[in-house]
Design brief:
The structure holds three protein chains of three kinds.
Chain A lengths: L1 H30 L10 H8 L1 H33 L4 H9 L6 H12 L4 H8 L11 H26 L2 H9 L4 H28 L4 H5 L8 H11 L3 H30 L1
Chain B lengths: L1 H28 L6 E7 L5 H11 L2 E7 L2 H10 L6 E2 L3 H9 L33 E14 L23 E4 L2 H11 L9 H12 L5 E5 L3 H6 L5 E5 H10 L3 E4 L7 E7 L7 H12 L1 H11 L6 H5 L3 H4 L8 H5 L9 H16 L2
Chain C lengths: L4 H24 L16 H8 L1 H34 L3 H16 L2 H18 L7 H26 L2 H9 L4 H30 L2 H6 L7 H8 L6 H38 L4
Helix pairs in contact in C: 2-11, 3-6, 3-8, 4-6, 6-8, 7-8
Keywords (chain B): Periplasm, Signal, Transport
Protein name (chain B): Spermidine/putrescine ABC transporter substrate-binding protein
GO molecular function (chain B): polyamine binding
Chain lengths: ~270, ~350, ~280
């Protein structure tokens, strides 16, 4: 298997070298540069001494957490019920289909749906409930973000659920476990790997959301992604933008080690 | 494995079909062998019919690449890698590109029809004597209101935006220069102010505007205003004209204190490969009939005075989009303030955005 | 298999929510008016517009060609990577590889786009005739899709019993046979999931594509975003309708293939033949 292994390694290692290490080195380099291209530690100092940036970090964390938690809460049961359907592969594909339509267009659709004269408010009006401000609230921001990310949570969980050997489930019932026990003792632990994939695939990118914060959140919610985008494009202060990028990478490492630990506990 | 193989086969098949389709379409649109003119412009910011006309007249093939912000365009042109023959930056970006040697000088001898441009739109501070740029469209920053809720006298001054009756009603264009600029205008300061104390003063004033702001957004303000989600918006005249076309209750006002006047300009980037084609395109766009047609398509204000004459009087005499000379005198073009100052503007803006 | 009523209702609600905005968009593509604010009447005018807009049609085909191809390559690279990661015995190496894998997932698109742009311009200076265009976009899309493929395939591989591979080898299978007959079939659900995710990422991406494209090559996202200043016309909605229908056909096609596969399997089982 040795030769095979090195064969596999080639394309992936090439990818790692060119598209991961090279950009990381670049970002690291830029993070130690000021606007004029001289070496400086000022970016990090600015980041960690500015209440704005710390607040941004906290904000990003909080919303990424909210988004991930809501997609997990909504997505897990959906994935679970999907696996019980007759043509489950077909239905799973239907879950993924909406992701193929442009994000910008979907956001526009939500503007129409959530608007003060939009579909939801018109529907509420039927019951005599006065129009509510839905857009530009934390709720709408989290909702739309969760909407966008939901398929990315359902997919890995579904895959891990499908893989569960049904005989294990039957065995659990045969041994007298009820539905709940079977779920908590058999199904949930066996689907954890999918849950972890889902969390990683959503929490990490959610830290750097930027489009929706403006479109749906009206810039009430500001995340690290927004700040980076601003530094790279508007102020052209790539140093500061790169610094925030480095912080994000470190946060990612932390999240990964956290999800890994949990997995370790599960198997023990 | 069977499943994987079938999938692989299907995917390869689809790719082949798509490739053939692209080839077919490109052949149909023709002239793939001809020399190309690479235009870098905002999306949908040039009547496609004019592109066809230009291709037919000159025999060049046009490659129309698009960007969604001045800054993104700047980054790409600065980095190189692609050869654009024409780009369309806004005023302050034009200045920055000139400063950073990213654009080529335009030889006036090779231009035909520069005198079609009104004198008020030539020789502006971002490019004295138009050595590097030719104006494409122009406009102002102003206030859009919905007449169901407010009237013109409610919004004819920037300072009136602070009125409590606008509590949680104002939509604001997402930009540090614009946001701080409104604060600076209320004190009568220049939009290109660099003094730290004045900026702080404007920031302090803007902090009190916070409760009136409903959202800070960008292009989508058009939808929000047309949907009547927002009742008042601070926006560019170009966007305003799009909203007003959709909702007849909307009106555009230029506040009395004066405001920002902006220009989008045609420039020839340093990376130009088809210089002849670039000049042909500029001259083509300077022609009154073409400029008028483009204006009808885009709906922004044209700097081409001969083209303006060809437009209906309702357009020509609209003071909101073609303000009087007296109004114009009170307006300022954004100047490139340099990286340091821009950073300061943006830091203050971030602070204002976060602590609303 | 038992069906619970609650489950059915829950799924119906989820599907309604998932498809509400989509149908909103699709409905307006048939609007006689020009905007998404009011539906003024049924009309196919936006489809007519679309079909006479060769530029947009070319962009549409390019976008899908790119998505199909980049996802294919990314899946291949990703599966290789997954195998490599899982074969590394040292825990530290494994974790380091995984961390490196996820860097592109966490980096905001702007950073990825900007750093790839720098990378490609450096490459362009070294190599004659290497300019921004389809190839650079393809490479970038492959690059940012690889980690999600690894993330989808890895859990599957972890669960796979290594003794399966050893057993195959004991039975005289060479490495290639062990791979194609044991490992890959086992990984199939993960591989398909990874492919779809990569495909989706590719379709969705705006920022990275924007930075690394050039020479007339554009994708749908770039075109739509850059049209936002002028207002996205309903022509784009019409386009989305077509994409959606095309996707439905694809899904149905895929479903038919996999159903054939499944029924073939069950036939084999009934006959008592197992391979």
């Amino acid at each position: 298997m040795h030769k095979m292994r090195s064969l596999f390694a080639v394309p992936y290692a090439l990818w790692l070298l060119l598209f991961v290490f090279a950009p990381v080195v670049l970002i690291l380099g830029y993070s130690f540069m000021d606007i004029n291209g001289h070496f400086t530690l000022a970016n990090y100092q600015a980041f960690f001494s500015s209440s704005n940036y710390l607040l941004l970090t906290l904000n990003s964390f909080w919303y990424a957490l909210l988004i991930t938690a809501s997609t997990l809460l909504l997505g897990y049961p959906a994935a679970y019920f999907l696996t019980r359907l007759k043509h489950r592969d077909f239905w799973l594909l239907l879950v993924i289909l909406p992701t193929w339509i442009s994000l910008l267009l979907k956001a526009y659709a939500f503007i129409g749906i959530f608007g003060i004269h939009g579909g939801v408010n018109q529907f509420l009006n039927l019951f005599g409930i006065p129009a509510k401000q839905i857009l530009f609230t934390n709720f709408s921001f989290v909702f739309v973000s969760a909407y966008i990310e939901l398929p990315f949570m359902i997919m890995p969980i579904y895959n891990s659920l499908v893989e569960i050997d049904q005989s294990l489930v039957f065995a659990s019932y045969d041994l007298g476990a009820n539905k709940r026990q079977t779920f908590t003792k058999v199904i949930w632990p066996l689907s954890l790997s999918g849950v972890n994939s889902g969390i990683q695939a959503i929490f990490i990118p959610s830290l750097s959301l930027f489009m929706l914060t403006r479109l749906i959140g009206g810039n009430r919610v500001i995340t690290l992604g927004t700040a980076i985008e601003e530094h790279f494009l508007i102020t052209q202060n790539w140093g500061m933008g790169a610094t925030i990028g480095v912080v994000l990478i470190i946060v990612m490492l932390l999240v990964m080690s956290l999800t890994r630990e949990r997995k370790g506990d599960g198997s023990r | 494995m069977k499943k994987l193989r079938a999938l692989l086969l299907g995917i390869v098949l689809i790719i082949a079909v798509l490739g053939a389709g692209i080839w077919q379409l490109q052949r149909k649109s023709g002239m793939s062998g001809a020399k190309t003119v690479n235009i870098y412009n905002w999306g949908d910011y040039l009547d496609p019919a004019l592109i066809k006309k230009f291709e037919k007249e000159t025999g060049y093939k046009v490659n129309y690449d698009t960007f969604d912000s001045n800054e993104a365009m700047y980054t790409k042109i600065k980095q190189g890698g692609t050869a654009y023959d024409i780009a369309v930056p806004s005023d302050y970006m034009t200045q920055k590109m000139i400063k950073d040697h990213l654009v080529k000088k335009i030889s006036h001898a090779k231009l035909k029809g520069l005198d079609n441009i009104g004198s008020a739109y030539l020789n502006l501070p971002f490019d004295p004597h138009n050595r590097y740029s030719v104006p494409y469209f122009w406009g102002t920053l102003g206030i859009i209101y919905n007449d169901k809720y407010y009237q013109e006298s409610d919004v004819d001054h920037w300072a009136k935006l602070w009125d409590p009756k606008f509590a949680h009603q104002i939509m604001f264009i997402d930009g540090a220069r614009e946001y701080l600029g409104v604060g600076l205008s209320t004190f009568g300061y220049s939009l290109n102010t660099t003094e730290h104390a004045k900026l702080l003063q404007a920031t302090a004033k803007l902090k009190q505007l916070g409760p009136n702001i409903k959202a800070i957004a960008a292009d989508e303000i058009k939808m929000y205003m047309a949907d009547e989600e927002g009742r008042v918006a601070v926006e560019y005249s170009g966007e305003a004209s799009e909203m007003m076309a959709e909702n007849s209750h909307l009106h555009y006002v230029i506040p009395n204190e004066g405001t920002n006047v902006w220009f989008d300009n045609i420039v020839i980037p340093k990376s130009v490969q088809n210089k002849k084609g670039a000049y042909a395109f500029i001259n083509f766009m300077l022609r009154p009939d073409n400029a008028a047609q483009n204006t009808r398509y885009i709906g922004y204000s044209t700097p081409n005075k001969r083209a303006l004459k060809m437009l209906p009087s309702s357009v020509r005499n609209d003071r909101a989009f073609y303000p009087s000379k007296a109004q114009l005198r009170k307006m300022e073009v954004y100047e490139d303030l340099g990286a340091q100052k821009l950073q300061e503007y943006n830091d203050l803006y971030l602070e204002l955005k976060m602590k609303r | 298999m038992k069906k619970s009523k609650f489950g059915t209702i829950y799924l119906i609600v989820i599907f309604i929510v998932l498809y509400l905005p989509i149908f909103y968009l699709l409905t307006f593509s048939f609007n006689a008016g020009a905007t998404m604010n009011h539906f003024t009447g049924f009309s196919l005018v936006h489809f007519q517009e679309l079909f006479s807009d060769t530029r947009l049609l070319i962009i549409l085909l390019q976008t899908f060609l790119l998505a199909f191809l980049s996802a294919l390559i990314a899946t291949a690279v990703g599966v290789c990577g997954t195998l490599w990661i899982s074969y590394s015995k040292k825990k530290l190496t494994k974790n380091a590889l995984l961390a490196a894998n996820n860097v592109l997932l966490v980096s905001p698109d702007v950073i990825i786009g900007a750093s790839f742009l720098i990378l490609f311009t450096v490459a362009g200076n070294l190599l004659q005739g290497f300019g921004l265009g389809f190839v650079t976009v393809l490479l970038s899309h492959v690059a940012f899709s690889v980690p999600i493929v690894v993330l989808m395939v890895l859990p599957q591989l972890k669960k796979m019993n290594e003794s399966l591979v050893f057993a195959a080898q004991d039975l005289g299978a060479n490495n290639w046979q062990a791979l194609t007959h044991v490992i890959l079939p086992y990984l199939t659900p993960g591989i398909i999931a990874g492919y779809f995710m990569a495909f989706t990422y590719s379709l969705d991406d705006f920022a990275v594509t924007f930075f690394v494209t050039g020479g007339g090559f554009t994708t749908l996202s770039v075109e739509i975003y850059s049209r936002a200043r002028q207002g996205v016309s309903l022509e784009v909605n019409a386009l989305s309708t077509l994409v959606f229908i095309f996707a439905l056909i694809l899904v149905a096609g895929y479903y038919l293939i996999s159903k054939d596969d499944a029924s073939a399997k069950s036939v084999r089982k009934k006959r008592g033949v197992s391979r």
